Amino acid sequence: MTSRVRAPRWDDVEIGTSVELKRNGRTVFAGLVDTRTDDGDIVWVTAAAGGRRLFHIADGFDLVGSPA
């Protein structure tokens, strides 16, 4: 039997927070948190230049706050 380690939750990120989604130390997408699920598994982020993307915590991204 294989056990899976769950990633930390994103449930403490507030809507309207400026964030960067990083993978391997590189910023993949940046913007404002538009919404998130209550369980912290999914966030929608809207970029300043336009565009909106969904990110799932299991996809291997680090979500970090960024200066507004």
Features:
0% helix; 5-stranded antiparallel β-sheet; disordered N terminus; mainly beta; 46% strand; 68 residues
Explain the overall architecture.
The chain is mostly beta strands. It contains no helices and five strands. It has strands at 18-23, 26-36, 42-46, 52-56, 62-65. The protein has a five-stranded antiparallel beta sheet with strand order 4-3-2-1-5, with no helix packed on it. A hairpin with a 5-residue loop joins β2 and β3. The model is unreliable at 1-7 (pLDDT under 50).
Number of strands: 5
Strand order of the largest sheet: 4-3-2-1-5
Number of helices: 0
The helicity comes to: under 10%
| H-E order | EEEEE
* First-to-last CA distance: 45 Å
Can you describe this structure in just a few lines?
The chain has strands at 18-23, 26-36, 42-46, 52-56, 62-65. The chain is mainly beta and 68 residues long.
Furnish the topology, listing elements before pairings.
Elements: E1 18-23, E2 26-36, E3 42-46, E4 52-56, E5 62-65
Antiparallel strand pairs: 1-2, 1-5, 2-3, 3-4
